[in-house]
């Protein structure tokens, strides 16, 4: 559940767009400069300035359509790349490509960037739409992918170190704080399970072996053979280490060293936060990235809120001479001769490019955007191996500050009574209190509580609006009561603001099938072997985000963005490539996926 997921009524249409932050519509033109129209200004601006979304083109639609049609017919595309969606994965891919010299257009359905890593404002509060636990934001190593992505476009954000990644409150009164310092965390965990000292050290030692191998490599596309072979010759041991663990899952490795069932259940909870599944179903590489980076680079919260990441990346994109268009709801990917060549918006506008990158889920990309196209065999195989992960019920609250003890941690995971409830809807609760770190997010004397728990779309269908609203309040009341009993006596009486969102909210505003937050394995797959990369069976079409390797989570989707940008750059000729080696490697990777 450290994966990003949206809030509730975050996009309530009764609120003006300016309520959602500093992003405001502008009447600047955003058209084809080669045809004599004005472009967005490419002046270098400071990174803390406002990114102004453009919702309409200020030229006659027919003139624009004619210009685009002529551009397409001449195959002299205005853009090298169109990116559908401005989630973190899409923005990282877009900015990386723009820095390399590509002309990029990002199309965002909403009025601000970020998707489930966005923000919204109500009554003096600035709420993170999704998770407040930010990985990849340190100043060292190679897995600080958010820091690197921002730096690539000349931006840097001030961050606040979080001394405790998460405080677990588990059955049988098991309480474990995951301290920023690894030695402190391990000492505490061993104190709870002294008879498993060696098992604990060996399991987390395996995690560090994988993390250190990853952290030593320059991270680019695993689908690009020149890079891949180069890294192997430079770091053969590290590459072989990762290859060895690629088909393995965290739970299987934990069981090699640990026998205590409650400690194994704790490892399940650790992995559930990463992947919304238990340890046996969580790829060991994914688990290791998160379980070690929280100590190596630490969790660092961006001042002003998580939404600042996407705003900064969008600003950097424009500064590089590329463009981002808001209120641009892509409904179709346009195909010509078996190749993806453009997109059509809900208002009828069309844009064309050499390549299309979809930051939508693979279910949305192939099930909705590619209308009339047969589902490629690779995607059929993917859907046989993976199902949609559950969505979330989210509660954003403002509370009186005095209700929280002075030593309260920022992040909490609550599973009170029974380990078997870990993966059940509403079974476990994740709580973020970002105002513990940044008090500027709320009015004076107030704290923000962001509560979320897994929920299924099926649980919210087939009811009237009145019943739907009543059920939201009822379920939220039960969740809040559990937190009041376990953590904060008197919590209900301290609430001064509350909004509740369901899977239907997430589906509607983030255009994610059933509100899902990526894939989860149907069974116990072999690690990451079955996870698709960025290329697809459709010529000219790439995917990026949480339904691509390596999966869910901020650091994972940023990695996906970096990999996608590198592969696309090679394919459009701005990075080195070898078509013969490319074809051979892609066939090999396709074969490996069949072994999952």
TrEMBL record:
- Localisation: Plastid, Chloroplast membrane
Can you quote a single GO CC term? Answer: chloroplast membrane
Recorded GO terms, molecular function?
A: carotenoid isomerase activity; oxidoreductase activity
Query: Which residue intervals define the domain Amine oxidase in the entry?
Result: 88-568
Q: What is its EC number?
A: 5.2.1.13
Its cofactor is:
FAD; NAD(+); NADP(+)
Q: Which SUPFAM superfamilies match?
A: FAD/NAD(P)-binding domain (SSF51905)
Quick one: a GO biological-process term for this protein?
A: carotenoid biosynthetic process
Stretch forming the signal peptide: none
The topology of this chain with respect to the membrane is: Peripheral membrane protein
Q: Which reaction does it catalyse?
A: 7,7',9,9'-tetra-cis-lycopene = all-trans-lycopene
Q: What pathway or pathways are given for this protein in its record?
A: Carotenoid biosynthesis; lycopene biosynthesis
| Cross-referenced InterPro entries | Amino_oxidase, CrtISO, CrtISO-like, FAD/NAD-bd_sf
- Give the record's keywords alphabetically: Carotenoid biosynthesis, Chloroplast, FAD, Flavoprotein, Isomerase, Membrane, NAD, NADP, Plastid, Transit peptide
Cross-referenced PANTHER family:
PROLYCOPENE ISOMERASE, CHLOROPLASTIC, PTHR46313
According to its UniProt record, which protein family does this protein belong to? Belongs to the carotenoid/retinoid oxidoreductase family. CrtISO subfamily.
Q: What is this protein called?
A: prolycopene isomerase
User: What is the native source organism of this protein?
Assistant: Rhododendron kiusianum x Rhododendron indicum
Q: What is the lineage of its organism?
A: Eukaryota, Viridiplantae, Streptophyta, Embryophyta, Tracheophyta
